[in-house]
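Figure 6 in text form: structure in, sequence out.
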């Protein structure tokens, strides 16, 4: 194997690792967002966890996160705005990334 082949494999491995970490961070962020919304709806315990899982699953429908925003806006029925959900998601994402990175090391 040549040096270029080694470099190519290393870049591919790094890309795959980075993509996996990003996916996990997005899923963790959605879980955190789901638990936040569940609390707003008065859910706790297993009902809150179930709702958080439904938010993680909802994010698979589209490439961006607007599917989650639409679902949560409908579920929260005027308790919070779409913009508040987006802001909360943006606030949770750095924490989610930090948690995933700390678990990986």
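Output sequence:
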């Amino acid at each position: 194997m040549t040096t270029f082949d080694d470099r190519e494999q290393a870049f591919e491995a790094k890309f795959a690792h980075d993509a996996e970490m990003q996916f996990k961070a997005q899923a963790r962020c959605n879980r955190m967002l789901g638990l936040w919304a569940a609390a707003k709806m008065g859910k706790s315990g297993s009902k809150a966890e179930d709702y958080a899982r439904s938010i993680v699953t909802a994010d698979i429908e589209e490439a961006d996160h607007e599917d989650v925003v639409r679902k949560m806006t409908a579920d929260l029925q005027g308790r919070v705005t779409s913009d508040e959900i987006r802001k909360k998601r943006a606030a949770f994402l750095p924490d989610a990334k930090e948690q995933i990175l700390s678990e990986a090391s």
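Caption detail: Residues 45-105 form one domain.
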